[in-house]
Design brief:
elongated, 25 strands, six-stranded mixed beta sheet, mainly beta, about 325 residues, five-stranded mixed beta sheet
Length: about 325
Amino acid sequence: MSFRQFFLKLCVVFSLALPFFAEDFRVHAVVPVQFSDIFSETKCTAGINDAIFITLPADMTYVSGIELHFKVPEIVAAWRDTIAYSLYEPITPRPSEKQIDYSGSRISVGTFPGKLSHTIYIPLSEQMEIKNSPYYEKIAVQPNSKQGFIFFRMQLAMKGVPEEFENALFEITAKPVLIEKGKLRLFVIEPKEKKETYSVFIDSNPFTASENGNLLSMGEHHLSISSENYRNEVRTFRIEQAKETVLTIPLRGIEPTIKLVSPENAQVFFDGVPVENARDAFEISQGEHIVKFIIGDYEVVRNITAVNGRSYTVNLSIDAAVTEDE
């Protein structure tokens, strides 16, 4: 950029930016921009004296800003820094396609460079990690997202431009910029008969589950639950960008459990007591136990020493041996 171009741009910016108090102005048209969801983008066209009215998503949990990509008309690109853009806040009345007269204060101002495309990022959260670059621009101020919309105005910043400017149209693609996080909604289910203390860790760090979920960085995570009164639980899960992962973990007591697996016609006894639905695991006490299976005249007995925090399975399998004699 030559000194003359730099000086001209500086004059344009200062003439537009000072003073930053409420002003009355008129736009040629208001172009509405809405998103069907936070993963979508929308396209529109706007002239050099139009304003863009961007309705923000209702749920801003994952939204850190708005990206506006402009396909700049050739005539505008040839006359760099002649078209200015401004953000206004507050703005009255509420923007609509039927309204062209407004009052508001500029909170940011800039000009379009001499390029056929230009991308502008509007930050709406401190979590927006995009920095300025020769290939795009990040606005320095952060508009108030609680008002639910952004008012982006374009206007001619100098006189003496060709008449073609009046019909020049920008092709605009707008989309939300998402944080590189997702949400974990953790449900820990305790046994109804008792409520004991336990500790939750994610990636070895203490974790407290929030009723509305917790934001975590994208990728794989490791969760563990430790307690003196419940069995330790370990899970691995993935967090996807701007999506919710639900994890439900039932806590189990430290009492040992046993499952007895046998053919359907077998009689099953545990410590001398017949067992129905033996394939379902059930709690037992610590210490010595006796399991007995009876099929016809065939009887199998096994001794088990149960220890807290362990699960046992006793599986009766009947095999047939094949021999071949010459």
